[in-house]
Amino acid sequence: MTGISAPNPFEFSEADTCREFVTPAIQAAYWGDTPFEIAEQRSFTDGRIVLTGRSAKRREGKRADYLLRYRRDLTLAVVEAKPYKSPAGDGLQQAKDYAEILGLKFAYATNGREIIEFDFLTGIEQKVDRYPTPDELWHRQIEGTPLASTVAVKTMLQSLNHNTGKPPRYYQEIAINRTIGAILSGQKRILLTMATGTGKTPTAFHIVWKLWNSGWNKDADPTRKTRVLFLADRNILVDDPKDKTFAVFGDARWKIEGGEAIKGREIYFSTYQSIAEDERRTDKRVAELDDNQSALIRAVRQRGEAGQNMLLDGHFVLRGTSGELVRLAKEVFADLQLSGVVLLTEDAQIIVDRLIGRDGIAVNPELIAELAAEELAHAYDVCGVLQVPLTVLHAPNIQMLTEVVNRLFLACNRHTADANCAGVCWSSLVSSPRLFTQARAMVAAP
């Protein structure tokens, strides 16, 4: 009888290597034992959308071989595996790239024979003979930080609410955990910048959920819950989250209206206008125009230098604090280096009706018509001087708008040497509430 020889691991594929060597080694460090988790072959991006002629397709997303989770919602490390015959270091750069995208402090690369660790906290890359246990890795991450306190640990490890629908996307999870960490570290002001449609409301909900359920508050009073103020500039952006996303908080919620706030509640909702010093101010008059435009230009330049296409939402004319019409300086648009402009128009009475439905505010249609006429005239003036193509659309639907913006981006991508792929102006008074979000989602800008 001829004996059956043992398989040669140097002939193993990556999948074989993972099954026979990598997974057992990770499990030997107690990953996979409740409450610690191993997420295998986990995709965390959907893939970039690119244009192909007049159609769009999505590239392959990013997928990690292993994500090591201290809790379901708290990932500590990524592991990238290569076939047994390959050097372990072949996967290290990929592991480091994934760790940076996911906001992780530890990255591992392995071929089943060797393990290479990169620690972003110390910058040290080294070979290790085993994977650290969950507790070892967690203590390394929080050692010497305010997160090492008992209350902080409880708050960080508080699970998210998974009964609200879709689980958080990877960037939402990063935003949640970084914000919680910053709060627990004593930071007073934290700014999250998230694009339209990326889930600002659910991200805010999970941040509040973790703080509220862990019992954290700024005074470290164990008898009190966290107090939160949720602000927006329109009633629909307050009522919808309060009545839907935040409904799980029950009677802890209260909407501030007419200056009335019951002090026995913990999660308050309000529009800016309801708590402004001048309660008569119901419009969107803007002060410090130069500062606002300077901030916009800086942000656009940063993204332009990163090679990003941009679809900007803005105005050519604004109302000052005294109600006067103020034309934005041509230099503002020159500094933005626009590749094209799309100006939307609509009948004044329709805009008035939308404002009433959206904000409960009745505006004189003559004021709307005056603003629209001034904005149209200034748009022609600016685009003529800067020699930027201007397209005027009256009451467009989403298909019309998407076609125009796609043409703008296609033209821009052929001439990107000295211009940002950006378009202005878009009047939120003119557009229907969801038109801009739909256009951004449908425009396939690489």
Keywords:
alpha/beta; 446 residues; single chain; six-stranded mixed sheet; three-stranded parallel sheet; 15 strands
Structural features, described:
With 446 residues, the chain is an alpha/beta fold. The protein has 14 helices and 15 strands. The protein has helices at 14-28, 92-102, 134-142, 150-156, 170-184, 200-214, 236-245, 272-275, 289-305, 330-336, 348-359, 365-386, 398-413, 435-442, and strands at 37-43, 49-52, 55-58, 63-71, 74-81, 106-110, 115-119, 124-128, 228-232, 253-255, 267-271, 317-319, 325-327, 341-345, 390-394. The strands form five sheets. A six-stranded mixed beta sheet has the order 1-4-5-6-7-8, sandwiched between helices. Strand 6 (106-110) and strand 7 (115-119) form a beta hairpin. Helix 5 (170-184) packs across helix 6 (200-214) and helix 11 packs across helix 12 (365-386). The model is unreliable at 278-284, 416-437 and 442-446 (pLDDT under 50).
